[in-house]
Design brief:
The protein has 369 residues and is an alpha/beta fold. The protein is built from ten helices and ten strands. The protein folds into two domains: 26-147 and 328-366, ATPase, nucleotide binding domain (Nucleotidyltransferase, domain 5, 2-Layer Sandwich); 156-322, ATPase, nucleotide binding domain (Nucleotidyltransferase, domain 5), CATH 3.30.420. The strands form two sheets. Strands 3-2-1-4-5 form a five-stranded mixed beta sheet, sandwiched between helices. Strand 6 and strand 7 form a beta hairpin. Helix 4 (140-146) packs across helix 10. The chain is globular, with a radius of gyration of 21 Å.
Length: 369
Amino acid sequence: MMNRLPMSVTASTPSFADDTPGRAPGLVLGIESSCDETGVALVHASGQGVPRLEAHALHSQIEMHQAYGGVVPELASRDHIRRVLPLATQVLAAAGRSLAEVDVVAYTRGPGLAGALLVGSGVACALGAALGRPVLGVHHLEGHLLSPFLSADPPEFPFVALLVSGGHTQLMRVDAVGEYQILGETIDDAAGEAFDKSAKLMGLGYPGGPALSRLAETGDPAAFKLPRPLLHSGDLDFSFAGLKTAVLTQARKLGDALESRKPDLAASTQAAIVEVLLKKSMAALRQTGLRRLVVAGGVGANRELRQRLNAACLVARVRVHYPELHLCTDNGAMIAMAAAMRLQSGRAQAGRDYSFDVRPRWPLDAIDT
């Protein structure tokens, strides 16, 4: 049986005028389906203040993919199809809203898995067409970048952002919505990949990064001397492929002793990643002269990283902001928020052309192309 949304909708003129840049977009429904989480959320924007999250719901596919040791794209796409409309119904009910009240439908256009992106894009554009409402495709990484604005302590522009999400590790200067200058980025493996790949080498389950972090809590971070790639390079770029190789070498050296030394190896690996992220972030603050740091993306939930950054920023008298822990992973709230802020700032216009494409590879510095 097909999932259906309640459709007690009559033809009407939406309150949002998509030909008026900078106008408050009203109620934005956001859909995220870039990888292995299906997220739906409602964000309300009125005036020039920070948009407000009204409700959100999230389904994680972790349990489904665990048997395969990683994300299976075809399974991910099929699960998004099953989940997105029930989640939308759940969010509308939680917010006490009807579908007719939605002013804009936003969705993740990229980057991500092509099939998964097509599910969210197709549903969003179909909803927009059925409602006669404008739609807007959102950059997944911009969603992460702006997710701290959903927190109880939202940042103010300008700030330095450390974006550590999946296969992306970037430092950038953020002057306003859509005004991003990349200061440094990974030249091979990202921090999230270093966590996940190192965990796999240690025989930890999927998802590897959180498993490694939990194991590290009982280990000695100084037990093994692991490299800190590009730590003293003089620039703000990252490289974690060499660390992964060093973890593999150390695991092989340990042999049968690996099982009993896993906590120490996990703690040493985490310490190496965190130190690089910490030192490069503080260098970016010094280089730009800015006094505010925003940390976003899944790795931003790492407890050790937060503790080290909090301590360093306290000494440097720098404000540091994070998304709420439950909003560090992929979610619909960040997509709705990014759409609302782009529309509110006049950086984007939603439209009623319901044809769509997706961009599995979409650099953040090409966001307006």
